[in-house]
Amino acid sequence: FIYVTARINSLDEITRNKSSEIDGGLWDRAFQLSKLADILNEKGIRHELEVIDYNAFGIGMPSTLQAANSEKLDVQDLNLRELLKTHTELISDEEFKTHLDKFNAARKDLFKASLEYNKCANTYNTYISHFPGSFMAMFHKKNSKNLFGYYFRELDEQENIL
User: Fold this and answer.
1) Radius of gyration of the chain from Cα atoms?
2) What is the pLDDT of residues 37-72, one digit of tens each?
3) Which residues contact 4 (CB under 8 A, 6 or more apart)?
4) What is the number of other CB atoms lying within 10 angstroms of the CB of residue 153?
5) 12 within 8 A of 142, measured Cβ to Cβ
6) How confident is the model at residue 157 (pLDDT cuts 50, 70, 90)?
7) Is residue 20 within 8 Å of residue 113, measured between CB atoms?
8) pLDDT at 91 over 60
9) Which of 3, 27, 64, 161 is 20 to 30 A off residue 86, Cα-Cα?
């Protein structure tokens, strides 16, 4: 009883921690996008970037919402790449380049965190789907975890400016 309960709680905690890494990655990516949009606005460059309110991101988002926000950010990533094709001078702007590097790094971190989360969620779900884990999960009212269901777009190497 104690071992199975401790194992379920441990797997649940690991999965929550991995989920919070996704939340942090989403926040960082949205924050960097807002900084990039601010620079574009300061320079008077018209853009079609939809800046997502990074203050709306919080820890504990369900994985379905995390996936939807990842999709929104990837769409804006593509818009930004299109803009950079016509405004190549932005690459030489040190402040813009710094935020662009952080924006791109946050995408890689987010991708890595999503893979780690899905691995942990699968382990948790497998454990609570078999006896005695299934019995203890039912006793403690633990449910299976949804997977992070967004598949990151492949970015064309030609579009991958950095």
Assistant:
1) 19
2) 999 999 988 888 888 877 777 677 788 888 888 888
3) 132, 133, 136
4) 13
5) yes
6) very low
7) no
8) yes
9) 27
Other C-beta atoms lying within 10 Å of the C-beta of residue 16? 15
In the chain, which residue ranges form alpha helices assigned H by DSSP?
2-42, 63-86, 94-128, 133-139
Is residue 158 scored above 60 in pLDDT? no
Yes or no: say if 110 and 19 are a contact pair by the CB < 8 Å rule: no
The yes-or-no verdict on residue 161 having pLDDT over 60 is: no
- Contact of 33 with 110, CB cutoff 8 Å: no
Q: Rounded to 5 degrees, what angle do the CA atoms 35, 27, 104 make?
A: 60
This model's pTM is above 0.85 = no
Structure tokens at 61: 């988002």
Distances (CA, A) of 92 to 20, 71, 81, 101, 117: 34, 28, 15, 12, 36
Q: What torsion do the CA atoms of 32, 40, 75, 114 make, to the nearest 10 degrees?
A: -10
Yes or no: say if 19 and 118 are a contact pair by the CB < 8 Å rule. no
Q: How far is CA 60 from CA 23, 52, 63, 150, in A?
A: 7, 18, 9, 17
Give the least confident one: 34-38, 66-70, 92-96: 66-70
Assigned token pair, 82:
């299109």
- CA-to-CA distance for 99 and 105, rounded, in angstroms? 10
